[in-house]
Amino acid sequence: MGSTSWKLEDHPKLEKGKTIAVVVLDGWGEANPDQYNCIHVADTPTMDSLKKGNPDTWRLVRAHGKAVGLPTEDDMGNSEVGHNALGAGRIYAQGAKLVDLALASGKIYEGEGFKYIKQSFDTGTLHLIGLLSDGGVHSRLDQIQLLLKGAAERGAKRIRLHILTDGRDVLDGSSLQFVETVEKDLAELREKGVDAQIASGGGRMYVTMDRYENDWSVVKRGWDAQVLGEAPHKFRSALEAVKKLRAEPKVNDQYLPPFVIVGENGKSVGPIVDGDAVVTFNFRADRMVMMAKALEYEDFDKFDRVRFPKIRYAGMLQYDGELKLPSHYLVSPPEIERTSGEYLVHNGIRTFACSETVKFGHVTFFWNGNRSGYFNPKMEEYVEIPSDSGITFNVQPKMKALEIGEKARDAILSRKFDQVRVNLPNSDMVGHTGDIEATVVACKAADEAVKMILDAIEQVGGIYVVTADHGNAEDMVKRNKSGQPLLDKNGNIQILTSHTLQPVPIAIGGPGLAPGVRFRKDVPDGGLANVAATVMNLHGFVAPSDYETTLIEVVDN
């Protein structure tokens, strides 16, 4: 690529030197106002006032599907691809799409990662661990099916599937149909002489898929079932396991207890042993990193692994570029270079970024193109506020919004920084719990934090950019094709815990916003990737020519 010229052109009409607050509300989309729109129900005077402004300073942008590099317009956005787009200013093929391309072309089987695990096929077992659903957020059923078939065709003689049930990105109870589908595929493989079966399982929020080192016991439950072949529940088939366990009180797909499938001898049909190959097939990183550490690190003290088998382990993708974890992976990540953060630091923009643990990585690592650490420690400061642990987020829905607001306010008032960037996680993390009342409280807390930040911007004569990464809290109910809430068989509404396909707001303002700055009318399909050029303009620079176009123009009054 040659050396990058980091010097940005000066904007012909916008001056430098304004303090800019970039606020990302996580899971804050725009939808019709009704009782299931927690943002509408909540008391959010600050965000309301931005919206009531005018179309010159408030608009919607796309935050799902192709706008953020996902394969189809049915793919809801998520925080990782959202922050990649916000920070990179360009649209990169992401997660699912990268895997789709690699599977369709067969490139996945020619890569270093597959060649590495293939060395175990002759004498060992291939274990596939991940989320069994078609949700498309962490994994996708059709990819798992293709990988099973492709591995068998390329010499895998013994395959064990370790499933995690979903119920968060898809309907609760849908686990049964996913198990039935994959059991058919496994039966077909057995007919062809491949010893293929499900070996263990559990619900995604209770087994394996914790994130941000919140609760290692979740990973340990997975390790015990998948690696050691030990779990409190033993069944002869996965279908029986899911049916019986779901019948227990307070059990749903997300929180299914761990189980193992046993043979006639009562022993697990698929523990992981020396010489085996393991693939974690989720393409989304955040809920695979902890398991990856347990599978990969010789030196590990988070829980007692009992034994640490000598295996060949690969992720579907590399889950952490800075930790190089895992060191082997089937599909290479998007190379996101020349992000807006790196350009701005090279052009003298002193940057402060802050969130609490659950979204700290989004406002730093993902914002900066899947890269950990500072571009220039003299120019940047990143602050992580510890998230509550050991409770679900609806118990304390205010989370750390006010603390994040205070840190941002202090950074702005210190006048030590040109950009102060935060993520307020409330509407997303509490929205995921499906607790409508708590989500209303969460939205109010986020709004209060926005007010603190805007008040500080007012005091220093700065500019604010308030936006979001994807929807969630604006629609908490599942709907039929005509938009009416869906009811379950008892007549209760079906709660929607997932992200949405809704657009998200972006608002600009503050005393430092030059007169004549307004949103353009000729970028109707603008998305999150257009925000980077917009922010660069407000700092007084023109964005690089290959960035998605800016959302603003300056008209002479």
From TrEMBL:
SUPFAM superfamilies found in the cross-reference section: 2,3-Bisphosphoglycerate-independent phosphoglycerate mutase, substrate-binding domain, Alkaline phosphatase-like
Residue numbers annotated as active site: S79
Pfam families named in the record: iPGM_N (PF06415), Metalloenzyme (PF01676)
Compartments it resides in: Cytoplasm
GO biological process, one term: stomatal movement
Positions bound to Mn(2+) 2: D26, S79, D469, H470
Molecular function in Gene Ontology: manganese ion binding; phosphoglycerate mutase activity
Top-level taxon in the UniProt lineage: Eukaryota
Subunit structure of this chain's protein: Monomer.
PANTHER family membership: 2,3-BISPHOSPHOGLYCERATE-INDEPENDENT PHOSPHOGLYCERATE MUTASE, 2,3-BISPHOSPHOGLYCERATE-INDEPENDENT PHOSPHOGLYCERATE MUTASE 1
Family the UniProt entry places it in: Belongs to the BPG-independent phosphoglycerate mutase family.
Name of the protein this chain belongs to: 2,3-bisphosphoglycerate-independent phosphoglycerate mutase
The organism of origin for this protein: Cephalotus follicularis
Lineage: Eukaryota, Viridiplantae, Streptophyta, Embryophyta, Tracheophyta
